[in-house]
Amino acid sequence: MASTARAAESREVAEFYHGSCIRLLIGLEDGDELVEGGAAPQTACLLRSYEILDTAQDVDMSPTAASGGIVVLA
What we know:
The protein is mainly alpha-helical. The protein is built from four helices and no strands.
């Protein structure tokens, strides 16, 4: 039970910071140092990755299914 409670608490913290980051990204404007320097696009990609993994975990899907079936071959 204790690990389940910790997992739920960790998820709440992750969702809080995820939402905070999204709000900060939305507030950025063209020409902002974070946009021009590449930090904002990189952050958006990482946040989207989190969303995909979170969706996959929520509905017990594979990451491929959660990403709409798109498979990227390296």
